[in-house]
Amino acid sequence: MFPSGGDWFQTHRAVGRRMVWVCLWLALLCSAALSCCGVSVHDPGQARRPPTPRPETPTTVPYLGEGAQVVSDEAWGSTELLPAARLTDGLTVDNLNRAPSAAFFREHYRISEHVAVSWSGGYSQCKPGATSAEYREAVVHRINYFRAMAGVPASIVLDATMNAAAQHAALMMAANGKVSHTPDPEWYCYSEEGDRAAGASNLYAGVWGPRAIDGYMEDPGELNYHVPHRRWLLYPRTRVMGTGDVPGRSGFLGANALMVWGPRSLARPQTRDGFVAWPPPGYVPYQVVYPRWSFSYDGADFQRASIAMSRGDEAVLLAVMPLASGYGENTIVWQPELAVGVAPQRDIWYTVHINDVRIEGVTHDFSYAVIVFDPDAPYVP
Question: Is 247 in the same domain as 118?
Fold first, then answer.
């Protein structure tokens, strides 16, 4: 028997209300299930925005990934070859003497400190923007400081096109809180220009500007036992680089992308010592002496090489790292058991011996002295 009149209407209105509530509950349950599975509903017309940093995304710890390895000029986007640079073209230093090395540190390393970044971009709009000309100059000046100390041509210049591409790459690293030389197209703030630049760059998340250059020279982390970033920074043939810098803000880490593979010379330029070492022979401020030491020589075979270090008459314990090619010049890396980052009370002399290095089929031995000192303190006998 069917209800009649108002009773029928009231009954169906009540049923309708129940159906609405059931649908709402089902929608909420589906949304919760999708969220738990990491799935989100995205409007195809909505621009990608940087995510709020998640617990699994590093938000406080700087991260330097592995170094970029050469595959081909086409993959790296540069086939331009230039004449070899001369040692006298850029910064030079007499670091075999204490006073000039100390003055060079004060005048050409510290000049890069405390320069305003003046970034014109933004995370929310995925806008790479640019930094001030003064800030970019501070970055390249820090690069040339290290190159001059290492005895390679210190006349690196920045290219505007490479700067712009590196800026895109830096934004991608900063917005996603991680680094990759082959970023996923699903990354926030992804761009093809940034992707291409990332494959030709040193990348550092959490550090930008001149401090990133220090980080590349230090090359910390288990992945960087062969100091690939340092090797690209000191590569003698390089003539031009590009820097992209995005400061950290609003919970984002910030990043640097330094395009290190660009216009360069086919011929290897003359270097001060023939080899390229860090720390180099001579007086080296303790602030730029890092745990890993390195010795590079173009085309050298280090398979049978041995390394010994001493401090006066006392041998220094050290561990030789596995060899790795494809990053600038052939290099051997070792880690001596030394304290770093601590101002010495007086100058410390270390002697380095590298024996049985094969160069064009001939065995060579190398010896040099590194004097670690405090550039702000007077000489103490």
Answer: yes
